[in-house]
Amino acid sequence: MPAVPSPPWFVRARVKTRQLMLLIAIEEHGNIHRAAESLNMSQPAASKLLKDLEDLIGVQLFERLPRGMRATWYGESLIRHARIALASLGEAGAEIEALRAGHAGNVSVGAISGPAMTLLPPVLAALNREHPDLRVSVSIESSDVLLEQLAQNRIDLMIGRLFPRHDKRNLHYEAISEEEVCAICRPGHPMLADGTPSLADLAALPWVLPPEGSVLRHRFELMFQNAGLEVPRRVIATAALVLVPRLLEDGDHLAVVPVDVARHYARHGAVRILPVDLSCGMDSFGFITRTDWLLSPGARTVLAALKSAAADIYPAPRPSRPAAGRRRREPADA
């Protein structure tokens, strides 16, 4: 007769949802009194819940200090998984409520600016036609911000980059394409009448650039330094791409932006693309999801639509390699 499998530890320990909520509240408030108040329970009841859990698991989850409580390594581990478990239950409730309201679910997608301009619009339009009850929200940020949002379950999936500094545990990355950049200016800019400008010509002009510390700003400046030139000194720094065309209108500033963004603005007559090749391109971007989190049916539908459209829009990414003169240690993503 086959052996009966042992039930999971949390079943044997009879772990309650309220105990998981209490662990998180103690970590956030630093003592059990305020944690109990936040959960609308008495301190003795909270103390008993915590003691019961510690006794059942057989380890101490918090150090009792003179002025509060601090999670032990055991406690930190359990609190991290408690957050994931409670967030998953919250997502389940939201999905059920959406289905009861006649919706196919809520999906949050994060993207960096280039694919946000080119990939997302046709996919979202198609999803709206084919799945009118599926509600999709979009967040446009840097990869660093999006990765933080993904870790906090604020977005379901993202389109962005992973650099060596990023913690790739529990992440799945599927490359889409490299991201080229170009220089843009206002229509009628004097530089448009001079043929192909040299790098020295570009160094003498004012620029609208990403903020200091971003990857694109770092590589843009290296492009001039590697050519023995001073980096442009007259600079307006902004991460708000929606502001760039307006900043170019009233002067002779140039701007460096992803090609996808430049083509979008050029189609609407807001900017012109300068006929010059810039060697400060960005690395490949791709789809990033969490391996420790199950995508909802709606999120899987969105991801499948994005992958299908990406295969038609983008060429296959080339193997990534450091560009000439490019440092391996990169600053924050732009």
Automatic annotation (TrEMBL):
Pfam families: HTH_1, LysR_substrate. InterPro entries: GbpR_PBP2, HTH-type_LysR_regulators, LysR_HTH_N, LysR_subst-bd, WH-like_DNA-bd_sf, WH_DNA-bd_sf. One of its GO terms (molecular function) is DNA-binding transcription factor activity. Keywords: DNA-binding, Transcription, Transcription regulation. Residues 15-72 form the HTH lysR-type domain. SUPFAM superfamilies: Periplasmic binding protein-like II (SSF53850), Winged helix' DNA-binding domain (SSF46785). Residues 314-334 are annotated as: Disordered. It comes from the Bacteria. Residues 324-334 have a biased composition (Basic residues). This is LysR family transcriptional regulator. It comes from Luteimonas wenzhouensis.
